[in-house]
Amino acid sequence: MEHVELVTVSSETDSDDEQEIDNEQEDFNPLIRGGDSTKSRAQIRRTRLVYDPSKVELKTSKKCSWKKLCFVVMCLAIICVSIFIFLTGEEEEPVSKAVAPSLDYMDFKQPKNMISYKDIMEDNFRFNLSSSSDVMVFLHIQKTGGTTFGKHLVQDIDLARPCLCHRRRNRLNRRKLHCDCFRPGTQDSNWLFSRYSTGWKCGLHPDWTELTSCVDKYLVGLEGGLVERRYFYITFLRDPVDRYLSEWRHVQRGATWKTAELRCGNQSWADVLPKCYEDDPTDEYGDYSDWSGVEIAEFISCQDNLAANRQTRMLADLELVHCYNKTAMDQEKRDTIMLNSAKANLERMAYFGMTEEQQISQYLFEETFNLEFKISFQQYNKSETHSGASKDKLDDKIIDKIRALNHLDVELYKFAHKLLKTRFENMKVTDDAFQAHMQRLGKEKYEFSWDDIEDEDYDTKDDTKDTPA
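Predicted structure:
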């Protein structure tokens, strides 16, 4: 038992100051009161118990130490959890912020029966080529390497039943590649919707707005609507300045893509939009003139040139910005909606690759769809491309103008590159055979040629007619 010293302290109190003493205190006071208990209240001698601090210091300190210790531990735990959340979310923050629509009035609608990348990763929606419902849809943006990648899709995927490819001559006596990519056991069920399989059935180089409103209707009309299809959208992107210069060189050689319908809002805008060149019939087929020989300064200065920000426009839902009517809303507002729409749609697509990241793009495709290419892509230096050579010859001010002109594509490309690397890192962690897979891709089976991109021959005057419906 602890020793407690009792110290007697006497004091005289005024009767006025003691009016508030309760009965309990009055009952207790006689037990410790000294002297005559009959003294008046004004002269009561009060005795208090005073504890010697030296005798109880250890016990009091012990209680305070435990409280302090618990408090410190709790604070440290909160700090550690906060730091962990901050560090783990730091790298992906730019991607997630960029994907999320930043304006309340944006209506990001997901196309009917579209399977997103998130669905594949989280809900295990695997592409089944043998299924009668799964269709891969390739959104081919000009001058991004889409022709090369499109040929890989029909010729180089290792399948039990490969696409049956053949060439036939069109009305210009050119040999055109066409492939029947039918499911095993069928003669008319397509698993791939692309230029080289079905042809340009939704228009020449259809964009997101055109494809998502056309593909299902076309396949239902062609194959019937008894099966509810699932669509896996894919595309390729390229550095905006290089892509723009590549398109300039292509147009300089005579390409126009003038037969593109540019459908949006239930109408075709092809005949409504002004062109950057005189568009009069010049030959026996009734074909029109083009922009052959155009110099870069003229190419840049034409405000109606669809080459500017082509990737953003082709990935955005154009109905959100009144299609091609640029006067319907403020330009800054229009740009913001288009960019955010393109980012959101790209993030939802089942797959996208990048021309500058051939090996990573091939790895992601094979892991996403559980398919393998029989060949491996190889990256070449940009200086070997026509656009790369042109870029070296151009003044820095011209390059800066091109970059500023394609500011939406520049932002989209930055976003896409971060997203691609994030997907690659996430997939690598869960891939037990990652090293073996990358070693296989590193084997030099096929030399990726930038000339395949630069010298794409679209035969745009006849591409929409050389494949059967």
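Summary: The chain has 16 helices and six strands.
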